[in-house]
Amino acid sequence: MIAKGKVTAGGLHGCRIISRKSITYSKAHSSPDNILSENDSNPLGFIRWSDEPSQKQKPKIQRKEKVEKNDLSRLQGDWVIVAAWREDKRGPDFVGRKMRIEKGILESFNKTGESELRGTITLRADKEPKEIDLEFTKNNKKTVFPGIYAFDKQKLHLAWPGRRGAERPKQFRAAGSDQVRVFILERKKEKKLTTK
Q: Which pTM value belongs to this model?
């Protein structure tokens, strides 16, 4: 029996029966009203607690993981900043700087190729726009920069807040005094960068 409704001390309340099979109560996402089915001839069924996501949730989770894995693969390699903006103005001081992403590690370099920053990235490809978090430690202080990213053919678009503690950018625009920094990067095919 597949049913949806609340579970009370007196049994199932307000449930809609879909088939006459035994039932499983799923705790997926701590929701008290997802009742799932199992093969059993008992018309009244029984309730079994399960931490497994429902069959409807699994494909969505799998798609998200697949997209994130694919995006992480696309991010791999050396990049160079070809355009940058901050506070509605171009940021020529950023142009020419390099960035490398390898196995979930992002490292940025100055124009001479020296490493400036190194941290781990986390992707959330199911968001719109897609989200990227950069976590790094500087002066014994852990910092997380919440950003967004997008692919444009062979180019990579990134937007980061310009200061610690700022909110995640909502669009690829360095508007006003919000200090958002927007970057366009292309793949770099020159000499190998020197890591820390």
A: 0.65
